[in-house]
Design brief:
Blueprint lengths: L4 H11 L3 H15 L2 H16 L3 H14 L4 H13 L3 H14 L5 H12 L3 H14 L4 H13 L3 H14 L4 H13 L3 H14 L4 H13 L3 H15 L3 H13 L3 H14 L4 H13 L3 H14 L4 H13 L3 H14 L4 H12 L4 H17 L6 H12 L3 H14 L4 H15 L1
Helix pairs in contact: 1-2, 3-4, 3-5, 4-5, 5-6, 5-7, 6-7, 7-8, 7-9, 8-9, 9-10, 10-11, 11-12, 12-13, 13-14, 13-15, 14-15, 15-16, 16-17, 17-18, 17-19, 18-19, 19-20, 19-21, 20-21, 21-22, 21-23, 22-23, 23-24, 24-25
Amino acid sequence: MDQTPQYAQGLAALQAGRIDEARRLFIENEKAQGTTAETRAMVERAELALARGDLEQAATLLDQAVRRNPTLTEAYLGLARAAIFTQQLEEARTHARAAMTVGPEAGEGYTLMGLVHELEGDAEGARPLLAQGAERAPNSFLSQFNQGRALAGAGGFQDALPFLVRAVALNGRSLEAHLMLGEVHVQLGQRNEALKVLRRATELGPKSAATWGALADLLFGQKAYAEAKSVLAQGLAQAGPHPGLLEKSAACAVALDDVPGAVTFIEQQLQQQPTYEQGWQALATFTLLTRQLDRSEAAARELLRLNPKRWEGWLHLGDLYDAQSDEARAHEAYREAVKLAPEHWKVLMNFGAALVQSKAEANWREGRELLERAVRHAPPGELRPAYNLALAQVRLGAEDAALALAQQVQREAAGTPIAAEAKKLETNLRAK
């Protein structure tokens, strides 16, 4: 477009900060040139291009619109959004600042500037900008959602709630907003509201594994295991064999006492994630529970092949061989576990207990030492190491020490199975 005297006057007014005068001059110039409708159509086409992800076309159209009227707030907003999508943060900053200058009442410019700060790692600088954007643009989904998202991300769930409710009202088809609102309801203990929002999310995003997973997590947390399993089955049917959904399905199966079913889900998960160490560990555990000892050993060996420093794999092998009365291999595996986790109470306890069950007195003494360490490192309320230490003391003839430990377990774990076992031990010791 050729620069007319009126256009030049508009530029001069804009550079002098007389925004309203500049806007009036550019609008009048477009009317005189007969380009008003065409420019508006450019902005609308750019919005559609942004919505479908065609950022190049959107930027081209918006650049043309801005050249015709440098006070078009929506054009700068669109350019800032496109730049943010492509991580061109300096360009995004320039366009967001221009939007804030020519259209401070719009609010979205502040939101976009806040997003630039966030992407630069400046959450502190982003916070007031996002807040201003939400305040100035109560009818903008972009501004309301991002203020709610930022507040929720900082743990301010109660403060985030009204912004996210407003965002969902403004855009009832936003999957992201529904997921965020559902999470906030969960964090606030508003389970029924969360269920309603997350069920709606599964309708909006039936192919989204995250959506089905979030709903299943909520149901699982309510101990509605069968319903959670059903939701996950729907998610797997819609989203395909997603590893996360398969892992959650395994957890539901275990909760429903279907350990063989859990094994099936984990094996399917490992087909998708063959290097997922936690999956191999779970497979080793569950196949041991189903007495598939060869498969259990193979899973633990695969875990250790992937990561020889995973002490859990060595501990599992120690427990497996101990259950098979293969003392030499059990002790060898336990020693590897102790090398890698010398302060983990369970490693110390299991190896110590295995040593105490052997026939060599030297092993009993080593076992007692390990169990004493296990007692020191056990979490509060965990009395199994103390009970096993009591058994070690009996084995070594230190019956007074064993009696004191049995009484301690009964005091600190009253009403539990381990306390009942300690009571039996005390009775036996007093009967001697």
